[in-house]
Amino acid sequence: MSRKGCLLYAVLVVLAVPVPVSHLWMVTASLLPANEVLSFRRSCSRPRRSGVNYAQAFRRVPVARQVLQQSYIAATVTAGTMVVASFAGYAFARIRFRARSCSCSSSAGC
Q1: I need a surface site. Which of 1, 23, 74, 80 has the fewest CB within 10 A?
Q2: Model's pTM, two decimal places?
């Protein structure tokens, strides 16, 4: 590997470090009690962690209903796309029309 490649790799690694650190910070903060989340001094010796925040969030937000709604939307969109794409595929495969070669290559992304 060239010197320039190694330098680029090192810079990218240094720039990527804050991403997992911020995720770790969010997960640990979500497990803390509400009165300790915004406190300046956190207790590093014996932090009190609990899943109470998650239990409250699942009680307040109808997660099961949202999952069902999103699943319905995803299934409907997928079925509609499959129907429309099958009609288009049949047209490209069987029907002869002017500029067929241009439209086939443009729809295929070639």
Answers
A1: 1
A2: 0.49
Query: Digits of tens for pLDDT over the chain (110 positions)?
Result: 788 889 999 999 999 999 999 998 888 888 887 777 777 665 565 667 777 888 888 899 998 899 999 999 999 999 999 999 999 888 878 887 776 666 555 555 54
Asked whether 48 and 32 are in contact (CB, 8 A), the reply is yes
In a domain, 75, yes or no: yes
User: 103 is in which domain, residue-wise?
Assistant: 62-110
Rg (CA), the chain: 27
Supply 87's token pair. 């009609």
Number of independent structural domains in the chain:
1
**What residue has token string 């010796």?**
45
The residue type of 69 is Q
As given in the structure block, the two tokens for residue 30 are 């979500």
CA-CA distance, 12 to 4, in Å (whole number)?
12
Helix (H) or strand (E) holding 19: helix 18-30
